[in-house]
Every structure is written in structure tokens, then in C-alpha cells.
Design a protein that fits this description.
By secondary structure, the chain is α+β, with helices and mostly antiparallel strands. The chain contains 1 helix and 2 strands, in the order H-E-E.
Length: about 80
């Protein structure tokens, strides 16, 4: 599906596609693997740095228009000693 152009300031967090056509968020990646998310973001916007961040991590509050944070919170395998 096509996302309509939204004329909102860059700092509005729910904006997914500004009028210049560059994608700014990827709601379709929720529930996907980290690898899938990273590959899709890099395919759509090779100009961005993708950062994988565990939910609850302390991060800077600066706005970096060249960075996408992928927030992850999932145990993928059984934790075990050894």
C-alpha cells in the first residue's frame, strides 16, 4: 500500500513518509527479525545508520536524522549455562 504524503515537521514522530518521498519509519517491520528489519531499512534508505538497541537501554536524546534505532525486546533461544 502507498503511504500518503504528509506535510508535517521533521520532528513529528508519527510521520512515515515526508513529501520529498524519503521514508522515515517502518511500521511493517514490527514482529520481523532484526536481520529483516536491518536489511529493509538499508534497502529503503542506504544513507542511514541502523542501530540495534535493546528495549530499556539508555540512549542519547539527540535527534540524528541519519540514524534509525531498531528497538528489540525478545529472547530468541533458551538461556542456559555453558
Amino acid at each position: 500500500s502507498t503511504i500518503a504524503c504528509r506535510r508535517l515537521p521533521n520532528f513529528v514522530s508519527n510521520m512515515s513518509k515526508p513529501c520529498d518521498g524519503a521514508k522515515t519509519e517502518w511500521p511493517e517491520l514490527v514482529g520481523r527479525t532484526i536481520k529483516e528489519a536491518e536489511e529493509k531499512i538499508k534497502a529503503d534508505r542506504p544513507d542511514l545508520k541502523v542501530r540495534i538497541v535493546p528495549v530499556g537501554s539508555i540512549v542519547t536524546h539527540d535527534e540524528d536524522l541519519n540514524r534509525v534505532r531498531v528497538w528489540v525486546d525478545m529472547v530468541a533461544e533458551v538461556p542456559k549455562i555453558g
